[in-house]
Design brief:
Strand content: 5-15%
CATH class of the largest domain: Alpha Beta
Structural class: alpha/beta
CATH architecture of the largest domain: Alpha-Beta Barrel
Radius of gyration: 21 Å
Helix content: 40-55%
Largest sheet: 8 strands, parallel
CATH topology of the largest domain: TIM Barrel
CATH superfamily of the largest domain: Divalent-metal-dependent TIM barrel enzymes
């Protein structure tokens, strides 16, 4: 992987962020893009690392032997090396198989839980072959549509058991839990960063369990993404971020970063930069171009998200910190509002 840019940051996205525009109410509207073409786009767009689901790296892995899985994962790692890229993390895809309809680790059916455990071990094998020590757990179906459908205390215990199995199976691997309050399940068991941090402390090796904050997921929980990041940073558990934007409490929109609420985006950059996140991890974008975008411009959201992030790094580093302290000490929050908005608009204070 190349040296970081002049700001100190490296960036990643997932191949699913270049997509065909299908949504729950309609089919694809853009032609598919071959995986090889997606990989070629990374360096052209200025990105350094790839976010993987397990079957992005090894397609149809449920029907393959351990030897085949390792061989294909190593071949993918060579492709990354040839392109000057690296794998940031691998995530088990535990929300599409028929056995995961009622959840994976927390399913009531023992056969479903066994499948999830086995699939997770395959993910660990893939991660090690790709040269990354980071696993991301998006607990997509670990919840219910009605609370009486599962025992919620037992569900937490089952999540801990599953993570413990992964920690024991791969002693050098770290696991980052990516919480989301809803969608696809109405009611998630681990909806916020606080829940994810607490879950990690129940495992056999809490030092190897951290968190990933996605902007949209925090917004959907009615929380501020910058505060969720700050909480993870306070516990030294923020190992990755998925930056995007969200137009209200709707479905998970994955809008380009900073395009809906610039001040909210600035606050995320401010907390990351002030706490030197560039020394801790990679800045991941989890953004999707809008469905109405033509195919020939369906990569711009990725370039624009990185550009806005770096513009906001400049804004964060040039913020008048003495004026900020003065506003805080004087409890003059109207002046603070004006300071931040004026700074984002490029206006200097007028006495």
């Amino acid at each position: 992987m190349n040296a970081p840019n002049k700001y100190g940051y490296r960036f990643s996205f997932g191949p699913w962020n270049i997509h065909e525009g299908a949504d729950p109410f309609g089919p694809p509207v853009r032609p598919p893009v071959a995986f090889e073409s997606k990989l070629e786009a990374y360096k052209r767009l200025g990105y350094d690392a790839v976010q993987f689901h397990d079957d992005d790296a090894v397609p149809n892995l449920d029907g393959k032997s351990p030897q085949q899985i390792e061989q294909e994962a190593r071949a993918m790692n060579q492709k990354l090396h040839d392109l000057g890229l690296a794998a940031e993390f691998v995530a088990p895809r535990l929300w599409e198989h028929p056995l995961t309809i009622d959840g994976a680790y927390t399913a009531n059916d023992p056969q479903s839980r066994a499948y999830a455990r086995d699939r997770s071990r395959k993910t660990l094998d893939i991660a090690q072959a790709l040269g990354t020590d980071l696993i991301v757990l998006w607990l997509a179906r670990e919840g219910t549509y009605m609370r009486e459908a599962k025992d919620a205390v037992q569900a937490v215990d089952r999540l801990v058991e599953a993570i413990d199995d992964m920690l024991a199976y791969a002693p050098t691997i770290r696991i980052a839990v990516e919480p989301k309050p809803n969608e696809p399940m109405d009611l998630a068991y681990i909806p916020t960063i606080g829940h994810a941090v607490a879950l990690g402390y129940k495992t056999r090796d809490p030092q190897r369990v951290g968190v990933l904050v996605e902007s949209a997921h925090a917004i959907l929980a009615g929380l501020d993404p910058a505060d969720e990041m700050a909480f993870g940073l306070a516990y030294d558990k923020l190992w990755s971020v998925h930056l995007n934007d969200q137009n209200g409490l709707k479905y998970d929109q994955d809008r380009a970063f900073g395009m809906v609420n610039l001040r909210r985006a600035f606050d995320q950059v401010l907390v990351l930069d002030d706490n030197r996140f560039y020394e801790r991890g990679i800045v991941g974008m989890d953004v999707k171009t809008v469905r109405t975008q033509k195919a020939d411009a369906a990569e711009k959201h990725l370039a624009h998200s990185m550009q806005v992030f770096l513009w906001l790094v400049e804004r964060a580093r040039s913020l008048d910190r003495a004026a900020l302290r003065q506003c805080r000490e004087a409890r003059d929050y109207e002046a603070l509002d004006r300071l931040i908005v004026g700074h984002l608009m490029g206006h200097r204070p007028v006495e």
